[in-house]
Amino acid sequence: MRFxxxxxxxxxxxxxxxxxxxxxxxxxxLLQAAWLRAAFPLQLKGKNLGxxxxxxxxxxxxxxxxxxAAEALGAHVATIRPALSSLGSPGEVRHTAQILxxxxxxxxxxxxxxxxxxxxxxxxxxxxxDGIACGAHPTAVLVDRLDDRTSPADNRRFxxxxxxxxxxx
Length: 169
Prior knowledge:
By secondary structure, the chain is α/β, with parallel strands linked by helices. The longest helix has 19 residues, at 18-36. It has 5 helices and 4 strands. The protein is globular.
């Protein structure tokens, strides 16, 4: 199965081509079926993910969704309260991205300036996501294209997990 997100460019997670949607939905359907069979894979076991979010960001719901989705696949998730908006120079952004790449296999950024997320994504050697667990992310609308054997909340988790597996796993 072709999966387009095996790159470390945060903008790749913001726009979905029809073939990207098809691949993402196919993987989400496999996850849904595995969950219904009680045979859910721990394909991210041993992976460390970080989630940057300010208190004032979209809220604890999207942060919790990201954490539940990743941990259900076996990953460890650390919540990081950033002061990244104060980074001014390209050197500071580069240094921060290098440190993130040493500690994490991927990082989710919520409530941060898109340009800062893109800068970090360009410098990091890991996937850097810009609000993939937030309701406004393009993948959120894919939930309606999964069948109703599971709840909309579970379907949203499956879509998010499919994206994680395609970019990390």
